[in-house]
Amino acid sequence: MSITFGRTDTSVLGRWWWTVDRWTIAALMLLIAVGALLTMAASPAVAERIHVESFHFVRRQFVFLAPAVAVMLGVSLLTPRQVRRMAVIGLLVSVAMLVLVPLIGAEVKGARRWLTLAGLSVQPSEFAKPFFAVVVAWMFAGARLDPGFPGRLIACGLLGLVAGLLLLQPDVGQTAVLAMIWAVEFFLAGMPLLLVVGMGMAAPVLAVAAYQMFPHVQSRVDRFLDPSGGDGYQVATALHAFRNGGLFGCGPGEGKVKLVLPDAHTDFILAVAGEEFGLALCLVVVALFAFVVLRGLARLIKEDNLFVVLATTGLLVQFGLQACVNMASTLRLMPAKGMTLPFISYGGSSMIALALAMGMVLALTRTRYGQEGLDT
């Protein structure tokens, strides 16, 4: 049964169908399908290793699939004004949860990043990123359109607040992603050249400071620079999986890396893809991520609403950067960082938060005309 709407259909769904980017929806659905396939391939072995039922992670992941798709499509129905309102409320809730994380959050591997709500584990930082991107875009756009509006000052304050809360966990990687979103949006909104130079000079200083202040950052950088001098087991095992998989892989279910790699279903799920399905599937995944980002940016070429340009770019930077960090860590192109591969790695918080982010991208890049175009 196919969905068909006439071009003269003025219903909510009819207008949505002819204004939303259906190619981006198709690419995102393919990513979700690949994620479901790889979760079924990778997680049973991990479940058995920690002595839980084989399909424990599969069932938990599939529970979030339908809500994630519903959230993404539901949010895509919103107008830019409604996206802003949702982002403001969402950021306030996310900040409140980030305040609670160091106080009552569960400690895992020396960090507190999770809250348990109604029996579910929630990672507030995953939700803070997309809401932060939209609210900061609103502040920068407001400052550009009205020089008397203190949008830049508010945006700087929001960066300091959210980044400070993330560093308390500590989560340096998510803080870096947040800072990158902020910097890209500020640059597009007209960052002064002197500040561009200053931030360029400050970046390596901040990187050295993070290395000195956070032992887990120091450990990961040291292992990256000298794999033989530390425990680089997961990355070395992942690289072996890629070599073993070759071009077309050893076949579904035939991989060995998932039997020994602790994070085979989360941070290193691309290694499972490389071993069982080969370079071919990995290139498809890379192409899908690139398509979503480039397609979203292409939709902005004729956009004259500064808020829409900034918010969409910030959301796409988050999406693309997170994918690049995960894949680069797996391939030992950068120090290891526990960051999920969007829509593919196991994780309910990540799945729903990314669905929110891409739903907002779909909403902001819809073709707008007439009264709908004025509702921004």
| DSSP strand content | under 5%
- Spell out the helices and strands N to C: HHHHEEEHHHHHHHHHHH
Total helical elements: 15
Shape: globular
Structural class: mainly alpha
User: What are the segments in which pLDDT stays under 50 over at least 5 consecutive residues?
Assistant: none
- Spatially, the strands of the biggest sheet line up as 1-2-3
Report on the biggest sheet.
3 strands, antiparallel
How far is the first residue's CA from the last residue's CA?
34 Å
Please tell me the overall pLDDT. 87
What is the gyration radius calculated from CA atoms?
Answer: 21 Å
Give me the count of strands: 3
The overall number of domains is 1
Which range best describes the helical content: under 10%, 10-25%, 25-40%, 40-55%, 55-70% or over 70%? 55-70%
Q: What kind of oligomer do you see?
A: single chain
Structure description:
The protein has one domain (19-367). 70% of the residues lie in helices and 3% in strands. It contains 15 helices and three strands. The radius of gyration is 21 Å and the shape is globular. The model has no long low-confidence stretch (mean pLDDT 87).
Question: What are the SSEs and their pairings?
Answer:
Blueprint: H1 12-19, H2 22-49, H3 56-75, H4 80-104, E1 106-108, E2 111-117, E3 120-122, H5 124-145, H6 151-167, H7 172-188, H8 193-213, H9 215-225, H10 233-245, H11 257-260, H12 269-298, H13 306-330, H14 348-364, H15 370-374
Antiparallel strand pairs: 1-2, 2-3
Helix pairs in contact: 2-3, 2-12, 3-14, 4-5, 5-6, 5-7, 5-13, 5-14, 6-7, 7-13, 8-9, 10-12, 12-13, 13-14
